[in-house]
Design brief:
Order of helices and strands: EEEEEEEEE
Strand content: over 45%
Helix content: under 10%
Number of domains: 1
Structural class: mainly beta
Largest sheet: 5 strands, mixed
CATH topology: Jelly Rolls
CATH superfamily: Spermadhesin, CUB domain
Mean pLDDT: 85
Distance between the termini: 32 Å
Low-confidence stretches: none
Strand order of the largest sheet: 1-3-8-5-6
Radius of gyration: 14 Å
CATH architecture: Sandwich
CATH class: Mainly Beta
Protein backbone atom coordinates (compact mmCIF):
# COMPACT_ATOMS: atom_id res chain seq x y z
CA UNK A 1 0.00 0.00 0.00
CA UNK A 2 1.48 3.35 -1.04
CA UNK A 3 0.31 6.80 -0.05
CA UNK A 4 0.03 9.75 -2.38
CA UNK A 5 2.71 12.32 -1.56
CA UNK A 6 1.64 14.51 1.32
CA UNK A 7 2.86 18.11 1.32
CA UNK A 8 4.03 19.18 4.76
CA UNK A 9 4.55 22.86 5.51
CA UNK A 10 5.74 24.73 8.57
CA UNK A 11 3.28 24.59 11.48
CA UNK A 12 1.66 21.44 10.10
CA UNK A 13 2.10 17.98 11.55
CA UNK A 14 0.97 14.55 10.43
CA UNK A 15 0.49 11.40 12.50
CA UNK A 16 1.04 8.05 10.81
CA UNK A 17 0.55 4.58 12.22
CA UNK A 18 0.80 1.01 11.10
CA UNK A 19 -2.44 -0.61 9.98
CA UNK A 20 -4.67 -1.53 12.96
CA UNK A 21 -2.49 0.39 15.48
CA UNK A 22 -2.49 -0.10 18.48
CA UNK A 23 -3.64 -3.62 17.61
CA UNK A 24 -1.25 -5.91 15.74
CA UNK A 25 -0.47 -5.12 12.12
CA UNK A 26 -0.91 -7.89 9.51
CA UNK A 27 1.90 -10.24 8.52
CA UNK A 28 3.28 -10.21 4.97
CA UNK A 29 2.38 -6.53 4.63
CA UNK A 30 4.13 -3.58 2.99
CA UNK A 31 3.36 0.13 3.17
CA UNK A 32 5.12 3.29 1.97
CA UNK A 33 4.41 6.90 2.90
CA UNK A 34 5.73 9.82 0.81
CA UNK A 35 6.24 13.38 1.99
CA UNK A 36 7.31 16.49 0.13
CA UNK A 37 7.90 20.10 1.12
CA UNK A 38 8.13 23.33 -0.84
CA UNK A 39 10.42 25.14 1.59
CA UNK A 40 13.95 25.03 2.95
CA UNK A 41 13.69 23.04 6.12
CA UNK A 42 13.84 19.65 7.74
CA UNK A 43 11.40 16.88 8.46
CA UNK A 44 11.30 15.95 12.13
CA UNK A 45 10.04 12.47 12.99
CA UNK A 46 8.98 11.88 16.58
CA UNK A 47 8.65 8.19 17.47
CA UNK A 48 5.78 8.20 19.97
CA UNK A 49 5.50 4.38 19.94
CA UNK A 50 7.50 1.68 18.14
CA UNK A 51 7.18 -2.09 18.60
CA UNK A 52 7.85 -4.39 15.64
CA UNK A 53 9.20 -7.90 15.21
CA UNK A 54 12.99 -7.86 15.35
CA UNK A 55 14.39 -8.04 11.84
CA UNK A 56 17.46 -7.77 9.65
CA UNK A 57 17.49 -5.71 6.45
CA UNK A 58 20.64 -7.56 5.37
CA UNK A 59 19.07 -11.01 5.79
CA UNK A 60 15.65 -9.86 4.59
CA UNK A 61 13.93 -11.30 7.65
CA UNK A 62 11.64 -9.82 10.26
CA UNK A 63 9.85 -6.49 10.11
CA UNK A 64 11.81 -3.45 8.96
CA UNK A 65 10.94 0.27 9.02
CA UNK A 66 13.17 2.42 6.79
CA UNK A 67 13.48 6.20 6.35
CA UNK A 68 14.93 7.64 3.16
CA UNK A 69 15.07 10.66 0.90
CA UNK A 70 14.08 11.14 -2.72
CA UNK A 71 10.86 10.86 -4.66
CA UNK A 72 10.61 7.04 -4.62
CA UNK A 73 11.81 4.19 -2.41
CA UNK A 74 13.69 2.44 -5.22
CA UNK A 75 15.32 5.65 -6.48
CA UNK A 76 16.14 7.41 -3.23
CA UNK A 77 18.70 7.06 -0.48
CA UNK A 78 17.99 4.86 2.51
CA UNK A 79 19.15 6.71 5.64
CA UNK A 80 17.91 4.81 8.70
CA UNK A 81 16.38 1.38 9.38
CA UNK A 82 14.66 0.38 12.60
CA UNK A 83 13.32 -2.86 13.98
CA UNK A 84 12.24 -4.28 17.36
CA UNK A 85 11.47 -1.63 20.01
CA UNK A 86 12.48 1.99 20.52
CA UNK A 87 11.97 4.34 23.45
CA UNK A 88 9.15 6.83 22.95
CA UNK A 89 11.48 9.85 22.89
CA UNK A 90 13.47 9.04 19.74
CA UNK A 91 13.60 11.92 17.23
CA UNK A 92 15.05 11.75 13.71
CA UNK A 93 15.76 14.91 11.68
CA UNK A 94 15.90 14.65 7.87
CA UNK A 95 17.19 17.74 6.04
CA UNK A 96 15.60 17.16 2.63
CA UNK A 97 12.69 18.30 0.50
CA UNK A 98 11.40 14.78 -0.17
CA UNK A 99 11.21 11.89 2.25
CA UNK A 100 9.74 8.41 2.27
CA UNK A 101 8.96 5.94 5.03
CA UNK A 102 8.75 2.25 4.20
CA UNK A 103 7.53 -0.60 6.40
CA UNK A 104 7.55 -4.27 5.52
CA UNK A 105 6.51 -7.22 7.67
CA UNK A 106 7.41 -10.81 6.89
CA UNK A 107 5.13 -13.85 7.21
CA UNK A 108 6.13 -14.42 10.85
CA UNK A 109 4.74 -12.89 13.99
CA UNK A 110 3.56 -9.30 14.27
CA UNK A 111 3.30 -6.69 17.02
CA UNK A 112 1.47 -3.44 17.74
CA UNK A 113 3.56 -1.44 15.25
CA UNK A 114 4.25 2.26 15.51
CA UNK A 115 2.89 5.76 15.78
CA UNK A 116 4.93 8.68 14.45
CA UNK A 117 4.43 12.43 14.51
CA UNK A 118 6.01 14.16 11.51
CA UNK A 119 6.48 17.90 11.26
CA UNK A 120 8.41 20.39 9.15
CA UNK A 121 10.68 23.01 10.72
CA UNK A 122 12.95 25.70 9.25
CA UNK A 123 16.67 24.88 9.20
CA UNK A 124 17.31 27.58 11.79
CA UNK A 125 14.81 25.85 14.11
CA UNK A 126 17.08 22.82 14.55
Amino acid sequence: MDSTPEVITYNKSVVITTVNYPLYYPSDFECTWYFTAKDDGSFVIHFTAFDTQRGSAILGMGDIFTIGTGAMVNYGSSLHSFSSTLPSNVVVVIGAGEMWLHFVSDVGMTRSGFQLLIERIPFEGI
